[in-house]
């Protein structure tokens, strides 16, 4: 009997400073598994303090070799191990249990003990608000039982669980419930069987006092699927939107990808403590409650949209993830990039497609471009990792989705569908690779896509410059394109990438398309494209719909952007023209150059007054680029200059366009309980206008915002009003914050908003505020949502976080180190704001570097945080 818990959690001894003994796993070292496990039976004796897990593994040798069986384990107390019924004393190698098996098959049985209530990492089996639940992706199953915990070992699971009936009346696992019964001593049991072989990371179990919102969906072949969303009884009224989203997603996947659900039961469970958004376990999705629970009083329009998106994302994984999984974790984007692309298309189809595209690009620019430009840059298919949890990134997810979008654009809808049909058919039931995916698209469509594979392996955002020359005499226009990719860690030399650019020419005078859109594929470092018969001066409309995830610089004449902001026939490019116009002014003033704000306010005014544009689009278009985005354009970042330049433009817009903003604010057609895209758009425009009105005149803004706050019958308007008030020095600010707290302090998801709003406030005092809030009785460092609401939000409050005295850095550093002791995965995700230290003015850059050094030098640091902080320093 060995206590595996004695093995140190971190590979370095706690007293020594962490060092590179945290070994990296490398993609090129992949080898197929030595042993397979076609069948597994699990028997859980559930108890929050001490749970017994008995596992029976049918083991089969894979190939001709004489290597022992190695089973992964983490924080397990081993009680016993048997091979073919005989008790054995297994060897331990680090955290692995090692067994020499003579034959080609064996039955390996283990019995272990685990402590769910003490599991603060929220990986494996843990307790959340009285519910026992699991999280196994990526390497959490080894915290439940000994197993070859890798995604290319697929097994059929049989699960029996037993628990106290009063505390845990509902017992769920993957697949179908095949039997249940009582034990007579207040305990009861249930047995579940999943007919589909799956990797261990898709295993799930839930036990708790839960109630279901139950419904059904009839699939395209006429099968009735029972649907349940399991929550605490009090939350049942907040599950309607998630259920509607689920049914829409099921119908969409049938229509758009021909994918039908394959079990007779689909369960979703919401829990309050969860490291990420949600998890696609086969037939039993487990969700962060933030992505399930919503009603108009407590959730914003954005929350509702996020619920649709995440419910659809997890459901779509049933095919792109569960039926076809990843061979190894380097292939993570195989399921994540594709599934994000699928959920983006779904959201575009059920809402406003142009606004959704704007939103997706905003996320990409805010989260992925900085990643690609900083010390944590990695390829969509990375080459190595120390801790795989650190690679659930915007690069793997969002850039991975962009890569698939580019291939879909090149193929066109029909051929892309032929490719995905072949992919689902060819690899069903397998653990596949990104190369398999591209090959299936090629074979299904008959189009060579091999050039696009470099997007999987080469990190960094391509920088493209474009210049259009026009000769009125010959009526010829020539487009000159050039691309380059800057070096990223480990990749000093870059090759040109295939870049599909949807391109058109707009007539400067006619304000119409004078050269119809075409798809230009820039494959080499440079290219020249000719347009004939261009009579009037042309405006270049390029990278329409953001057809490639690049940073684009266009050499333009003064006035071009303003004209394009009115004339471009592609909604995304029209948005982009106004944003770029603002950005040029912002960068100029942040660097001390003379900035002419007049063309900007003129273009914003024209956009506000346009009859051709809907409210949602107007709101997105007039929203100023964020401070981090402005900072990304500067060689040396001075956060005060960035802040002042943005505030000056906000003030100018607020003052110059008082009447236009007032009439935008007065737009009607958004009753608080109307969730149609049109009503959501009106609320968005009104609230963007409110913030700009307040920028022009604080007093007027405070009065309007407070009035809106008091009268609001929905959380969108309430939160937006408070969002405006928190950045003002008005008496209404504190009154509203107190009223919000009084009304909602019993609702954890709304309380998260209260913390986040204050952490996002654009005031000098925000650093003091977050310090105070960290000692607030409702602050829970162990709850990922609450920690992210305070510390995560603060890290992206550019001006406040980069407070010149370094107090913002100190606050976040302390928070990371404290959080790391409980939950390394979540702590590591707070590090990226420090990673840009080289780009800041020297004083701040030095303070940021010191923070990273303090983190790396801390005792007992997890490998999660060690990897992110040490790479950020390099
Ligand atoms: N596969 C999930 C994301 C996810 C990854 C890791 C987790 O562990 C804490 C949880 C969830 C998805 O893409 O939805
Ligand atoms: Zn996913």
UniProtKB/TrEMBL annotation:
GO MF annotations in UniProt: alanyl aminopeptidase activity
Domain Peptidase M1 membrane alanine aminopeptidase: start-end pairs: 242-452
Peptidase M1 alanyl aminopeptidase Ig-like fold domain residues are 460-553
Give the span(s) annotated as Disordered. 1-27
What catalytic activity does the UniProt entry give for this protein? Release of an N-terminal amino acid, Xaa-|-Yaa- from a peptide, amide or arylamide. Xaa is preferably Ala, but may be most amino acids including Pro (slow action). When a terminal hydrophobic residue is followed by a prolyl residue, the two may be released as an intact Xaa-Pro dipeptide
Report the EC number(s), separated by commas if there are several: 3.4.11.2
Q: Name one Pfam family in it.
A: Peptidase_M1_N
Q: What class of enzyme is it?
A: hydrolase
List residues of the Aminopeptidase N-like N-terminal domain: 93-202
Q: Which family does it belong to?
A: Belongs to the peptidase M1 family.
UniProt cross-references to PANTHER family, sorted A to Z = PUROMYCIN-SENSITIVE AMINOPEPTIDASE
UniProt name for this protein: Aminopeptidase N
Q: Which organism is it from?
A: Sphingomonas hankyongi
